[in-house]
Amino acid sequence: MNRWKRMVEHIRTHRQLFLLLAIGGLYSLSIALSNTFVNVYVWKKVNSFQALGVYNLAIVTWQPLAFVVAGQMAKKIDRVIVLRMGVTFLAFFFLVVLFSGDRAMNHLFLLGGLLGIGYGFYWLAFNVLTFEITEPDTRDLFNGLLGAMTSVAGMIGPPLAGWVIASSEKFTGYMAIFLASLCLFIAAVICSFFLHRRRSAGQFALRSVYDERKKNKNWRMITNAHFFQGFREGTFVFIVSVFLFMATGTEKSLGVFGFVNAVVSFMTYSFASKWMKQQWRLRAILFGGVLLYASVFFIVFDLSYVKLIIYGALIAIGYPILLVPYLSLTFDVIGQSNHAKEWRIEYIVMRELFLNGGRATSVLLFLLAITLFDAKEAIPSLMLIVGSGHFIIYFFVRRIRLSM
Description:
Keywords: Membrane, Transmembrane, Transmembrane helix. One of its GO terms (molecular function) is transmembrane transporter activity. The protein is an all-alpha fold. It contains 15 helices and no strands. Helix 9 packs antiparallel against helix 12 (305-335). The radius of gyration is 20 Å and the shape is globular. The two termini are 38 Å apart.
């Protein structure tokens, strides 16, 4: 009974933190259900790497623009409202797909833009709230718990969605999964009404935060690192799911891949959130980056479904080991930067601009490669180049020096 009382008291004390985790969990489950399959859905509709690239380019170009607008709004209104707006845009994306059908495929840049706007508003607000609600001594725990929840969502979402889609006729399974994602986003909006209102004040000083890169070495190094994080993510976020579908011809394979990835990721996140110490951060980031780059070699030569599953297991180890300390380090750098309290929103926006700058560069290189060369030859070579992004992160963050 005493243990139960302590647990209830802990939840009351950290109520806002757990509410934010609940919103993150609903978002993760919605994305786990649908995001893996959206790119395959587009691929099946258009059967074109170029169209797929344009769709993803729209996401990573509209997203930073949305971050800037959301950041300006968060300086004037409650950032919880900005969070709701982001989730609403994401829900609207699925409404458009559900009710427009094939007509949406004629406007892929606008469709991707809608998703990018939703991501921009959501992640701006979520990251700012994370910075405000967590403290340096709770950030590793928060990021670890959020990662574990994302992994659990990955255990449920992709296998369930893959089975529903593969068992349904034509595209009815896709419509059912997109509808489920819509409902989960609505639930996330409802949860947001229980978060405390959090206002900010002052002018939107984005230029001043960019200029901080000249004065603040830590800030310059962490933004450079985020560019290379995005450099890998831009292409890998969509090409791996299409490779899986091309290798097997069925959406069930994506579900199996997602399940294996999520199970291993859950175990790794659980380990990282419990045992990760601040003094181990740099070694963890290096190890995670090396493992993530090594995993690329499994899918660029003699591609097979077994190799893709091994790749999924390897990145499920690499990402948590890298991201838990890396995200905590990022917020610690921001917390120790000039005018962190007044400019916290601008710091988050600038970080995302560098992250999406890397993603956009990656997708543009993808489009350039498949335009100038044969796609089957160009894509593996490109993946070896952009796949190094997370490994390069270490060479920037090792130069960061935080005051204790």
